[in-house]
Amino acid sequence: MGSEEILMQTADEVAVCFECELYHSRKNAVAGEGPADAEIVFIGEGPGFHENEQGRPFVGAAGKFLEELLASIGLERSDVFITNIVKCRPPGNRDPLPEEISTCTNLYLERQIQAINPKVIVTLGRYSMELFLPKSKISSVHGQAFVVKGRVVVPMYHPAAALHQGSLRPVIERDFARIPELMSKPTEASDYRNEEVESDQDPKQLSLF
Ligand code: URA
Q1: pTM for the whole thing?
Q2: Do 132 and 181 touch, CB atoms closer than 8 A?
């Protein structure tokens, strides 16, 4: 099966998923969107109100800011794949629970990442970061590139955090500004991808920046 088909099948399954309690609070599941051959995947936390209404990721205020950040590095949202660690809106926008995260990522996010095989994964926010860098503090690692299980992962603050806390805005803008440099190093990234699987506890930091 090609990567586009895998993504479509995943989205079909997500739409009727009853594997965790979050199906109770969803109006529309949000599988994610973007090209099947995207070089960058952005992973947020979970759908909010607007995403739940529309069935699309990052379409509210945080999404508007994400689009501005992408534009600042010459990208449009249609150039990248955007998704979340959980595909259904947690009730009242609460944080997703560990079981919800593990169920959803094992069933869907893993498959999406395998299918797309991106050069770079950008995690948005703490929960998404913890999936790849469980022992890290976002305040220490944001904007740095790591190799985790053979993939280049760059943790960043969540755009919504920057909207709530103005001092984070220039920080996330600076972190985004590093993406083009990272994307222009395909050889290094793929060399690293062929290395031994890194343990989550001991991610290898790339020396690109
Ligand atoms: N915040 C997220 O983490 N994901 C979305 O899709 C929207 C807002």
Answers
A1: 0.91
A2: no
